[in-house]
Design goal:
3 helices; elongated; 0% strand; 70 residues; mainly alpha
């Protein structure tokens, strides 16, 4: 029974990783590309981190108004 529990835990962990990768890909891919560095900067600035703006306003708009609700 212990091996079955471990197998299920590994399966759930793998599915969680795949889900997170899909969510990340949905933010990065689209008609207007937003590179990962800029995406992390946009999220960091919204979380209150002191990040100087190196992304465009259009990228931030695409992330918050189009990709996040999706």
């Amino acid at each position: 029974m212990n091996t079955t529990l471990q197998k299920h835990r590994r399966t759930v962990a793998a599915m969680a990783v795949v889900l997170l990768l899909c969510i990340l890909a949905s933010f990065l891919l689209g008609h207007y590309p937003v590179p990962l560095r800029e995406l992390l900067g946009i999220f960091g600035s919204k979380l209150g981190l002191p990040v100087p703006q190196f992304w465009t306003d259009q990228m931030a708009t695409a992330v918050w108004n189009i990709r996040l609700p999706r």
